[in-house]
Amino acid sequence: MEDFNNKSYNSLQKKTYNIFQDWKINEGNIKGRIVLVLYRLASLIRSKKILVIFFFWYLLFYRIFVEWFLNIEIHWNSKIGKGLRLEHGHGTVIHGDATLGNYCTIRHLTTIGIIKHDDGSYSHTPQLGNNVDVGASVTIIGGVNIGDNVLIGAASLVVRDIPANTTALGNPARVVKRHEVAEVSKQISYVVE
Ligand SMILES: CC(C)(COP(=O)(O)OP(=O)(O)OC[C@H]1O[C@@H](n2cnc3c(N)ncnc32)[C@H](O)[C@@H]1OP(=O)(O)O)[C@@H](O)C(=O)NCCC(=O)NCCS
């Protein structure tokens, strides 16, 4: 599999490539496709001052259409690798400082965000590796690191790091299973060559 994100392509090439990867991986999921194309364009515009000047109207449209009407908040500053699968896109929130690796899956009612501490300060944001499959109604908050090939059970609350190649679930989420990598790639079957 080509690891486009590790090569020295410019951001325009990467973001355009990511649009195609998202499109391919969300086959049969028109809402996911639309939201991700709109997110990639917003993210591209936000990455260059000159584009913001000419396309500020698009950013406004993105906020109103995707957040208010489609009910999905993926901040344009979130760093999302190629091939994000957005299943049943309702009530999804991804913070602007969060990072998602390649080929992750996010489902409805999932929050990836920060914690506000008693002293008014904010925590760091979650960082997800590659092939992280997040079940429905999962909340991942704070500066947690989630390794590659992780399955997170539906309705889990993740507030601690989760190591690679595991299944974690519950409130708070704990590792319940460790996987052989081959087994994981079979389960997480969205990887495209
Ligand atoms: C976490 C998950 C990946 C585990 O799948 P699995 O490895 O096949 O595990 P099993 O179904 O064999 O369950 C193992 C145990 O965990 C429990 N379990 C499974 N998912 C759980 C969850 N989300 N929360 C709490 N416990 C869970 C099972 O009841 C079972 O308990 P037991 O050993 O006491 O009987 C899966 O259950 C899951 O939650 N996937 C997300 C699916 C989803 O979000 N679907 C929405 C589609 S719209």
Any descriptors?
single chain, 193 residues, alpha/beta, UDP N-Acetylglucosamine Acyltransferase, domain 1, 5-stranded parallel β-sheet, 4-stranded parallel β-sheet, 4 helices, 31% helix, binds coenzyme A
Protein model, in words:
This protein has 193 residues and is α/β, with parallel strands linked by helices. It has one domain: Hexapeptide repeat proteins (UDP N-Acetylglucosamine Acyltransferase, domain 1, 3 Solenoid), CATH 2.160.10.10. It is 31% helix and 20% strand. It has four helices and 15 strands. The protein has helices at residues 11-25, 30-46, 49-69, 181-187; strands at residues 72-74, 79-80, 85-86, 92-94, 99-100, 105-106, 111-113, 127-128, 133-134, 139-141, 145-146, 151-152, 157-158, 166-169, 174-178. The chain has a five-stranded parallel beta sheet. α1 packs antiparallel against α2 and α2 runs antiparallel to α3. It is globular. The chain binds coenzyme A. Coenzyme A (COA) binds at residues 88, 107, 135-136, 151, 153-155, 167, 169-170, 177. The chain crosses the membrane at residues 50-70. Keywords: Acyltransferase, Membrane, Repeat, Transferase, Transmembrane, Transmembrane helix. InterPro entries: Hexapep_transf_CS, LbH_SAT, Trimer_LpxA-like_sf.
Task: List the SSEs and their pairings.
Elements (H helix, E strand, L loop, with lengths): L10 H15 L4 H17 L2 H21 L2 E3 L4 E2 L4 E2 L5 E3 L4 E2 L4 E2 L4 E3 L13 E2 L4 E2 L4 E3 L3 E2 L4 E2 L4 E2 L7 E4 L4 E5 L2 H7 L6
Parallel strand pairs: 1-4, 2-5, 3-6, 4-7, 5-8, 7-10, 8-11, 9-12, 10-13, 12-14
Antiparallel strand pairs: 14-15
The structure holds coenzyme A (COA).
